[in-house]
Amino acid sequence: MKKVIKAAFLATIPVMLGYLSVGIAFGLLFEKSGYNFWWAIFMSIAVYAGSMQFIAINLLTSGIGFIQIALMTLFVNIRHVFYGLSFIDKFKDMGKKKMYMIFSLTDETYSLLCSAKPPEGINSNWFLFCIAFFNQIYWIIGTIVGSLAGSLIKFNTKGIDFAMTALFVVIFIEQWRTYKTHAPALIGICAAIFSILIFGNNNLILPSMLIILLTLTIFHKQIDGKNFEQNEGDLNNEY
């Protein structure tokens, strides 16, 4: 088990650096919005939704209705449906750990679970579980530090919420460099620009998510086929 913990910790160091920083930003903003820091910690334990937690701060303070919050949450996190589908085979033998693996499948955890390979002689199920668990612990620790700092230190928090945007930019760049086809990324960019022009900065999330979902659903075969051809071409070149 010590080998599993060590291997999982080493694999999660990049996420740790990001989650501690972003978790601190979330804790600060949540505390500054007028809520007790215990609520920020509770949200990071029970909700653990990354960007949606930042959005929730504005939703909670604006008095928006429950149905609108539910729809916003659905469309912001609908990508997790596809995350789960891609891990059906990987999680089916994890027993009681399966439910936590589903709950803890954030963007960064998903990326690590896709790419991280357990060292020889290490149980892969426990390795994956430790990766997911460590990532949430980093987020919770960051939230605690940020909440406590916000309650003890008085300073201007303007711009701190950009930390989550910065983290997504890093993920976007990494995915752009990793995947052969850039079609999904370009679809996302075009959908966002179109939604800003038509619906404005404050109303772009839901329409852009719908456009992305519909476009990827309609053209997923062409996108998958193009990616397969490029991968096959790379293999032939190497041969």
Automatic annotation (TrEMBL):
Keyword Membrane recorded: yes
Q: Its domain of life?
A: Bacteria
Origin species:
Clostridium kluyveri (strain ATCC 8527 / DSM 555 / NBRC 12016 / NCIMB 10680 / K1)
Q: Which GO terms describe its cellular component?
A: plasma membrane
Keyword Ribonucleoprotein in record: no
What protein name applies here?
Branched-chain amino acid ABC transporter permease
**Which PANTHER family does the record associate with it?**
INNER MEMBRANE PROTEIN YGAZ (PTHR34979:SF1)
Topology of the protein relative to the lipid bilayer: Multi-pass membrane protein
| UniProt keyword annotations, A-Z | Cell membrane, Membrane, Transmembrane, Transmembrane helix, Transport
Annotated compartments: Cell membrane
Per UniProt, what is one Pfam family of this protein? AzlC
